[in-house]
Amino acid sequence: MADSLASSVMSLRSSLQLLDSSIDILDSGVHDFPRLTRVLQTTRHFELLPEPTLQEAQQALLDEITPSIAHLLSVASNHVERLARREDSLKAKCELQEGRMSDKRRVSPAPNLGRVRTETSDASAKAIQLRRLVQKKERLKYAVDRLELQSRQKERELRKSMAFQ
């Protein structure tokens, strides 16, 4: 029985040696797995999307941006129109002032009627009255021009407000 036990022990030792060598072989084959998993891991540098998904994203972006762009364009347009109206108003005011300045240069100030002596002739009184009437006519003409310009501006504003509706 000692022989059979010795052969069993011997067989067990050889099995252990075989297992140790198998473990060593497996260990040498497996110890590099963490590095290999990192090396072999696929990294997506570019993600490929189906064309319908891409078109949906483009349309969503377009739907989101279009109202903002339209609003900004309308704000810019309104501002430009406001500046144009202001420019027209300033031009009209300038023309009015130029007209008044040229009238003052052409016609000297009329003398005070309260101080006109009774000795002055009828002709000089009529000349003074005529000069005042001419000045009044010029002032009225410039007032009418200014009112016409304001009227045209209000018509433009009305047309533009109707166009936006």
TrEMBL record:
Residue ranges of the region described as Disordered: 97-121
Major localisation: nucleus
Record's subcellular location: Chromosome, Centromere, Kinetochore; Cytoplasm, Cytoskeleton, Spindle; Nucleus
GO terms for biological process, alphabetical: attachment of spindle microtubules to kinetochore
One Pfam family here: DASH_Spc19
The entry's keywords: Centromere, Chromosome, Coiled coil, Cytoplasm, Cytoskeleton, Kinetochore, Nucleus
Keyword Nucleus attributed: yes
Coiled-coil region list: 130-157
Keyword Repressor: no
One GO cellular component term: DASH complex
Ranges annotated as spanning the membrane: none
Stored InterPro entries: DASH_Spc19 (IPR013251)
Residue ranges, compositional bias (Basic and acidic residues): 97-106
Similarity annotation: Belongs to the DASH complex SPC19 family.
Protein name: DASH complex subunit SPC19
Organism: Talaromyces proteolyticus
